[in-house]
């Protein structure tokens, strides 16, 4: 199969981990006789420096012509004082909106060899396997903020959702749950927010179409607590944009590191942008310390969700799992007795195992 992939490396470790994921995709293409072509485009701070915009028109056009997009991460202290429209993060929000990528899937699954890597007790982390379905193109992130008032001391951000926006993400969550363990936890703040009350009503309505899926409503504060005290009670969590952002970083603790969490951002017709959940990690950028596995697992999600290449995706996931079982890990993972390696070596290890391993076993259930 021939596929054209646009790579948006972005900033900081984004360039390091997207390069790693690209190499793994190249290896997978070679193994399975596919032709993947790659086109690099600018986004974020790098694009601001080069083109004066965090999301140049050329980047948007290239993404629209691609079969899928792979993104590293954006942001960094260099641009933190920029005005809002010239922040790297605007580029990321812009591409999500331009491509209508409203459905953000963030699977959180502990690899057996990483149970000790979490600061949480082994018995708490064991058997956790959940999927956060985060709404990605609405809510607080996309409300137009007011001008500063009161001499610069007052401002308003708005949290707006339409029925259509809520319905489509909730349906995605029920669809996902129906091929998993058939349980949806809808996370909201319906004891305070009007938008959450509408969200809850719609979840109830949509749930009628999925009688085999059980549904539960949970307030976000309690959900934050339960996520790290009894994570195995969750199957699919569906929630609005900001809650999903916060809960997914929290959930990464179950896996041992934020550097382990992949994601897919999809539109209505299956087109997707794939990126690690983590950011540009300015504290370790350029040092070869970044964990490339979140980006590599995001590439596996690309193969599965955009190209229907399930076997290829499973080979990548198996290679990642095996590398960890053999004790290879980057500095962010605390694995006593294992072998600490840099980004490049970790990537090479995954590629070697991908080429050596002809058996496949599904690791991620999403
Ligand atoms: P971050 O996710 O970049 O880093 C948080 C911590 O996790 C840091 O200590 C970092 O070193 C560590 N970490 C993250 N990914 C890692 C990896 N792959 N391997 C090893 N360690 C890893 O969050 P932050 O520091 O709050 O934000 C830094 C910048 O990244 C900000 O500008 C922010 O806006 C941006 N950001 C971008 C994205 C994205 O592009 N999707 C996501 C989150 C944050
Ligand atoms: C993420 C990031 C982004 C978000 C930022 C960089 C805009 O934190 O992808 O999780 O909040 O969505
Ligand atoms: Mn985030």
Would you kindly provide a written description of the structure presented here, covering whatever features stand out?
Residues 4-350 form the Isopropylmalate dehydrogenase-like domain. The structure is a single chain. With 366 residues, this protein is of the alpha/beta class. The protein has two domains: 1-104 and 261-366, Isopropylmalate Dehydrogenase, CATH 3.40.718; 119-146 and 155-255, Isopropylmalate Dehydrogenase (3-Layer(aba) Sandwich), CATH 3.40.718. 40% of the residues lie in helices and 17% in strands. The protein has helices at 13-32, 44-51, 57-65, 88-98, 122-125, 163-178, 194-207, 220-229, 241-251, 293-305, 310-325, 343-356; strands at 2-10, 35-40, 68-73, 103-109, 129-135, 183-188, 214-219, 236-239, 264-266, 272-274, 328-329, 339-340. It has a ten-stranded mixed sheet with strand order 2-1-3-10-9-4-5-8-6-7, sandwiched between helices. A two-stranded parallel ribbon has the order 11-12. Strand 6 (183-188), helix 7 (194-207) and strand 7 form a beta-alpha-beta unit. It is globular, with a radius of gyration of 20 Å. Residues 245, 249 line the site of manganese (II) ion.
Which shape, going by the Cα principal axes? globular
Identify the CATH homologous superfamily of the largest domain: Isopropylmalate Dehydrogenase
Number of DSSP helices? 12
Task: Give me the side-by-side strand order of the main sheet.
Answer: 2-1-3-10-9-4-5-8-6-7
Report the C-alpha radius of gyration, rounded: 20 Å
Low-confidence stretches: none
- Helix and strand element order: EHEHHEHEHEHEHEHEHEEHHEEH
EC number: 1.1.1.85
Catalytic activity: (2R,3S)-3-isopropylmalate + NAD(+) = 4-methyl-2-oxopentanoate + CO2 + NADH
Function: Catalyzes the oxidation of 3-carboxy-2-hydroxy-4-methylpentanoate (3-isopropylmalate) to 3-carboxy-4-methyl-2-oxopentanoate. The product decarboxylates to 4-methyl-2 oxopentanoate.
GO molecular function, one term: NAD binding
